[in-house]
Structures are given as C-alpha cells and as structure tokens.
Amino acid sequence: MTDPTGILNKIKGKIRSLLRSRQEKRHTLVGPGHLWKMKRQFQFDFLQTRGLKPTDRLLDIGCGTMRGGIPFIQFLDEANYFGIDVRENVLREGQKELTLSGLEHKKPSLVLFSYFRDLQFEHRFEYMLAFSVLIHLDDAICEQCLEFVSLNLSGTGACYANVNVESHPDDKWEEFPIVFRSVKFYQKLAHLYGLEVSVLGTLAELGHHSGQELADKQLMLEFRRKCHPDP
Hints:
By secondary structure, this protein is α/β, with parallel strands linked by helices. It is built from 7 helices and 9 strands, in the order ααβαβαββαβββαβαβ. The strands form 2 sheets. It has a 7-stranded mixed beta sheet with strand order 3-2-1-4-5-9-8, sandwiched between helices.
C-alpha cells in the first residue's frame, strides 16, 4: 500500500532541493555558489559581534544578490536596511531573493548606481558593510568609495571591509579586478577623508572558513571618523 505521507515528504524534499539549487545558482553571481550560506551567516554574525542593533541603519555596499542582506533585513527594524550595487542584473536577482524570503514588508531600499558621487541619502548610517567590495575596486574608485563613506557615516558609526594584503599578482573576477594592497594604502587614503583604520584580524580569525587560503587570509578593516580631526 502506498504511503501518502512518504510521498508528500519526497515531494517536499524535491521542492527544497530545487529552491536550494536556485539560490546557489543565483549567488554564483557574487562568489562561489557552494559557500553562499557560510558567507551569509558570517556577515550577520560579524556585525552582531560589533554591536549591530535593530534600531541601527545599515548600508550594504555591493549588496548584490542579497546573499548577505536577508538576515540583516530580518533583524533590523523596518526600512533600516539599504543595499547598493552597480550591476542591474545582479540587483534584479537580489530582488528575487528578497521576494523568496518574504521580507518585502520590511521595506528595504535596494539602489542601482553608477558612481558613488551620485548617491544621496537623507540620513547617515550607524553601520556600513563592504564585504568583498574594496578588493574589486581600482585605486581611483576605492578613493571615491572611502570619500562616500566619510560623507555618509554617522559620527559614531563604523564601516567594515575585507581586503587582500597578501603579495600576489592582480587578477580579474568577472568584469572586476582583484587587487592586493597594503594596509598603509588604506590608512593613507582614509586619512584624506577624516577616517581612522583599525585591523580586526584575518577573516579566518573572525570565523570565515571557506577552504580558500587567499580569501581566509584577507584582513577585516574598520573605518571610523577621527576623534580629533586634523586642523
């Protein structure tokens, strides 16, 4: 005799498998598909350890497919999540991920942009996250990004970004470069815009375990406003 419960469970399993494969395919647009769950959890856990509260406003620079954005939207108060990205097709997938997660009622803002100077917000942000972003920006665009951070970070806010510092030839991923710079480069650039830089450790030390040596050796930087700006 056929077991209807067993058949129903198999159907549910196939549906879950299909959804997982769709998500994995979607998130290959922003990195290794098989690592999307780990990277999502890492970003959320990391900002929680840095004191993120539901009442804080978060700007997710390079939000992409919402690989990292979904748990933040769940956690933050309504309308407190803002995501920006330069790729229209990727942001479109991010909107699909948002719909799939049933979180549109939280009223996150997803913004397509071309230049940092064109972005305007009505308020400043307590937290900014640029996960795997600075590693894909050439020097000029990186400077524009940090200028934008300085202009839009709240007085006590912080921006976090992982960077490549290992000695390695520059390369490319998709249409973006993969760049390797010294911490001194970021310190000097941040200084121009009234920011201070702290090194928090490698991603591996902070809980990011991808099995990819270069990625796990990246450093996490914290950018904050200088307590005593230069005259």
